[in-house]
Amino acid sequence: EVSMDDPETAFCTLANREELNPEEDSIHHCLYQFTRNETLTETNKLLCDVCTQRHCGPKNNIKSEKKYVYTNAKKQMLVSLAPPILTLHLKRFQHAGFNLQKVNRHIKFPEVIDLAPFCTAKCKNVAEGNTKVLYSLYGVVEHSGTMRSGHYTAYVKMRAMNNHLCDLVLRGQTQALEAEPVKGQWFHISDTHVQPVSVSKVLSSQAYLLFYERLL
């Protein structure tokens, strides 16, 4: 989606990113890196249609020898529409020479996460004046093993029906809820084995997929 926003506000976020000091090996650090401001220069310059037309004249005068004009630019990936369900997929592999190697280190993630520092200031479904976009964790997928083989297990929170979430999914309506995790019991599921577990057990898992439901 091409936007002609004021350059001064185009890279503004819903909450102040400068106040963030994300700890390494945390989901906040991953999101911060994914949404950081990048400068495109040299071989990464952006093809500018406006500059090209200004350089070559009107389109009907542009012939085959037309020279495209590339310019320095800034790029930033931000959330423009806060989803009812937030799914975070962690890249758990890295290149080791010509091979792929699994990344096994623990990535910290919270029960409640605020997406506002990673949302555009004009996020479409956030009420005006709100500077928080809160989500509560309800599911985790974990992978054990290597890149060639392994086993998937899941942690799932059993909780009461979230009518607020239903409103978001079906009608797009929003309302403020408590900035606390949705109450419920966590279970660990491995094939046909299901057993209750503590929150601390869930938060210490090697997450591969994280599922959050919107609170605010």
From TrEMBL:
PROSITE patterns: USP_2, USP_3. One of its GO terms (cellular component) is cytosol. Residues 1-215 form the USP domain. GO terms for molecular function: cysteine-type deubiquitinase activity. The keyword Hydrolase applies. PANTHER family: UBIQUITIN CARBOXYL-TERMINAL HYDROLASE. This is UBP16 hydrolase.
